[in-house]
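Table 4 source record.
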Amino acid sequence: MTDRTSGLALSGFDPVAFFTEGAALEGRREHEYVLEGIAWRFRNRGNRAAFVRDPDVYRPGFGGYDPVALGDGFPVAGDPRLWAVHRQRLYLFSTDANRQRFLKIPAGVLDDAGRAWPAVMKTLSP
C-alpha cells in the first residue's frame, strides 16, 4: 500500500520498527529508501540497512491490505496504526475489530485471505 498523496509506503511508518520496537513509529525523511518506485522511511540507518538487505522480511503481508477484509472478498487498505506480527510477518488492518478477529484465529483468517488474494491482485491498479 502506497499513500497516493505522499508516495510513501505505510504512510511513512518504519516497517522495521514493528519488529524491533514492537510499535508503529514514523520514519524520517533523511533515512528514506526508494524500492520499485515506492518510498519507505526509517527511524535510523540501522533499520534502513536491515530493510535494504531483505525487504521481503519487512513488507506487510498482502501488500498492506487488511487480511480479514480480503478473506471477506474486499480489498481494503490496512492502517499502519492497526497492526500485528504473526509468524514473523507484518499485517495491517482497516479496523480494530478486524485486528481482534485476526488475533483470535490468525490461521483461519490467513487461509481465507490467501485464497482470495490472487483474484484480488488482478483487480488492483499497479
